Amino acid sequence: MSSSDAAPRRTVSTAGLRLPICATCGVQYAGPRDDCPVCLDERQYVGWEGQQWLTLEDLRAGGRHGRLREEGPGVVGVGAEPSVAVGQRALLIRAPSGNVLWDCVGYLDDDLAARIEELGGISAIAVSHPHFYGVMTEWGRVFDAPVYVHAADRDWVGRPDPLIEYWSGDTHPIAPGMTLINAGTHFAGGTVLHWASDPEGRGALFSGDIFMVVMDRRWVSFMYSIPNYIPERPSTIRRALDLVEPFAFDRIYGAFWGRVVTEDGAGAVRRSAERYLRFVGE
Ligand SMILES: [Zn+2]
Ligand SMILES: [Zn+2]
């Protein structure tokens, strides 16, 4: 058997292990710096002890490990235990045309990479917005996969790399039955992913916190800033509604473990927007 028949060995690079990661938002940068632009922005905050930095090496040495758990049909949650920074989990969408990693986390180690490789690896990565960039460039390099980022959020990318594919416009197909939609709530480049051919055949939307699945999991909300409670603008929400309206979906996968709307997702988005706009006086 030639070496090309074996699954490739996926290992985190030495640079990836040592480049700085913001302890509060989990975004990795291309080199040492004093501040984290993502956290200085009014949608986030600098940690109460001041700006702190970590590396993947520190996280691994501190006992962090990867966590995988099914979050729905054909969808595996990918995170760290204990969680890193904001605490979101990514999602491995197991499509017949190749797995897509939706969103990212501020963590990766060789064991986690090997477990993902056993599930078929990653053909492409797509991210919702800067708070969930994590160590996406390292994930892209380890799996030799493009990372789709909306061009409107280009300046937020902490570790630029040729593998990052900046897309523009309202929608962008990345695989059969998989479409990125620039909903634009929370961030100008805020992206959700529609999967038409999920195993149940009902459609699924992956929303990060662009449409935030809330504690009552029949609903979502739309926030400009979640930690600082700044509401989103009605005109921006109406544009997002128009863009997702043509897409059918039952499930909505939000940003955190278990935050999943399991039925009538399209109706949930519509009703949630109507409720929101009623409360802000429109
Ligand atoms: Zn930060
Ligand atoms: Zn966010």
Automatic annotation (TrEMBL):
It comes from the Bacteria. SUPFAM superfamilies: Metallo-hydrolase/oxidoreductase (SSF56281). Residues 87-256 form the Metallo-beta-lactamase domain. This is Metallo-beta-lactamase domain-containing protein.
